[in-house]
Design brief:
The structure is a single chain. Helices cover 92% and strands 0% of the residues. By secondary structure, it is mainly alpha-helical. The two termini are 31 Å apart.
Length: 92
């Protein structure tokens, strides 16, 4: 797999600084788009963890089984922490 930055530099030598500027802008926008998809994926994973923990908790509350209730709540808390660390860290 080739290095896009090296290709941009090589082409800039042939086509001048305008081409390099356009190429770097394109590469930067592609990395930004990839970052947005990654952020959406991390948000989805975190929300799924929270939802799964809450579903488990609600199912076992009916049966009054405390160990699965606590584990479901723990899983939800881990999901919230994941959202806070992974998703919020991207904004900073």
């Amino acid at each position: 797999m080739s290095n896009p930055s090296a290709e941009a530099l090589e082409r800039s030598e042939r086509f001048g600084p305008t081409r390099l500027c356009l190429r770097v802008t394109l590469i930067t926008s592609l990395h930004y788009h990839d970052g947005m998809e990654r952020r959406q994926l991390k948000t989805g994973v975190g929300l799924a963890m929270v939802a799964l923990g809450l579903v488990q908790t609600s199912l076992y509350v009916v049966r009054s089984e405390w160990v699965p209730i606590v584990l479901g709540l723990l899983y939800s808390v881990i999901g919230i922490a994941y959202l806070r660390v992974e998703v919020s860290a991207v904004d900073r």
